[in-house]
Every structure is written in C-alpha cells, then in structure tokens.
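Ticket #4471: structure output looks truncated?

Reporter: J.K.
Steps to reproduce: submitted the chain below (334 residues) through the standard prediction queue, then opened the result file.
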Amino acid sequence: MDIVTQGLLGAGLAQSAAGKDLRAATAVGFAAGLLPDADGLIRSGSDPLLFLEFHRHFTHALVFVPIGAALATLLLWPFFRRRMSLMRLYVYAFLGYSLAGVLDACTSYGTHLLWPFSDTPVAWGIVAIVDPVFSLILLAAVGIGIYSRHNTAARTALLLAGAYLVFGAWQQQRVEAVALALAADRGQTVERLLAKPTLGNLVLWRTLYVADGTLHADAVRMGLVGDNRIYEGQSRPLLRPEDVRHSSEMSFRSRDMLRFANFADGLLVRHPTRAGMIGDARFAMLPTQLRPLWGIESDTAAPSAGARFVTDRSMSRHERQQFIDMLLGRSLTP
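Returned output as attached by the reporter:
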C-alpha cells in the first residue's frame, strides 16, 4: 500500500500495545512501518529494471520481520534510548514492522511475502494501493491515541481495518462471479481471472480474464446490497515473452523480457499507441482499458542497451469523467 498508510498501520500496532510511553511508541511504530519500503532505493543506473526485482521483495517477507525490526531498533536507539529500554524499543519496532508485507500482499502489485521459501509474489487484490477510507481509519485512531494517550482507539481501528479488508475479499468474490458469468454469456472459457479494486474504493472493480489467448478487461460496479453494473471494455491478444522476442517490430534482450514478464505476472500486452512498448496489463488508468500504466520500451537503435522502464499516466478530461460515472453507476457517454 502507499507508504504513509504503511507507517500509520505500524503506528497503530505499536500504539495498541503501549502504556505510558504511547506517544514514543507511536513514533517508533510509524518509522518501523516505513522501513520495508526502503527496498525501493535498490537501483542501478546501468540496469533500469533492477528495482522491479527488489521492490516488495525480501524486506517484505515474513521471515525478515525480526531482522527488519532489529534494523529499525538500531536506527532509532539514539533518539529513544532515554525514553525506553532497548528491548521495549525492539518490541514496538517489531509491531510496527510486522504487518507491512501482509498489507502490501492485500493489494494487486505483488509482494514476496513467503521469500525465500517461494519466489511467487503474493497479490490478493482485495484493496487498492491507495485507499483513503482504510488510511483515514488508521489516521483517526492514531491521532486520537496521541491526544488521549490511551490505546483504545488504536485497538478499535485495527479491528475496523481488518473488517474493511474482509469486506474487500467479499466484494472480490462477488465481482469474480459476475466476471465469470459475463464470460459465459460471451461463449468463452476463462483460463485465468483477476479482479482488483480501482483507485481509492471497493465499489468499482477492474476484471481481467484470459480466454483463447485473448485478454479481456471490463469494469464491474458492485454495490453493497447485490446490485451491480457491468461496463464492457477492451480486448487484446495476450503476449508471451517469446512472441515479443521473435517480433520484427521491437528488440528486447531475453533476460529483460523474462524479468518484466515475471514482474507483470505474465500479463503482457502491447501499448495501443506506443509501438515499442510492452506493458503490464494489470494496471491502467481506466478499468475498461488495456492501455498499460507502465511497461518496458526497447531501443531499436541500440538493442544491447537493454530495456527502459516507462510509464503512461496520461488521462484525458473525458476519461476522468468516465471513471467518475462508472464509480457512481451512471451510463457512459461516447
């Protein structure tokens, strides 16, 4: 999830176990909750794709939690040594660090939660990477706790945050059922299906499914009492790494193509307007689109230079209005 929410979750967890040192515990938990995302600093000027392999990697793994907490303790000890014992500082850092990877696994990005026992990223897709409702629950509780110097609000907020994630999982199951029914109406057999919430809500969902080598993107607005609305979207051939490597239109090194395919969970698609760009089909500005939010681009003039990581976050005024209309369950205008 976004880094601020990670810190708020860490602060809430530490605060829930704090006593008279609640304010200090909150600060420790917040800092420890931010630390796992330090893996985003692992970059290389000569290897533009290196950060894709290490973001949400070993620092987010469950087995790394005691080590991450120890690192946080060492970093914070000079600032808190006069306020608490080293062991108490470690306990608060452990709590702050403990669920960062689990929370990230609740999104659709992909987190190496089970490293080193499994190299497969975990992506449950039950909450958006940025969700203001979830964040505000934690922010309000942490603020009340700091003001009142009592941990009741933090404990209540953690229960509410957990219930919100359970609600997201329930919504996802309902959306998947709608997507499967839509594919059946189209006479298609679903080989693979993903359903993920759109930015900032659990009402409008993006569904992706593969049928006969084709990727289909649709949007489902799932209400709270059983009502839903489907917005049919785009379809595009699903690419395999070997299809791209053998293409005469672009040139990618095999290693770069395989690395990006692993990052994108195998869901590769050509960008509709940028001929040299292969994108991650999981993410787009509109849930009905297959114009990838990010991808890699080849340099045909210097193929040995490797792939570049590129983004396309452009969104027209009409597209923004379409998103709002879908979120509110309205009919779309052409």
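Triage note (M.O.): checked the attachment and the full token line is present. The first helix runs from residue 3 to 16.
Status: closed, working as intended.
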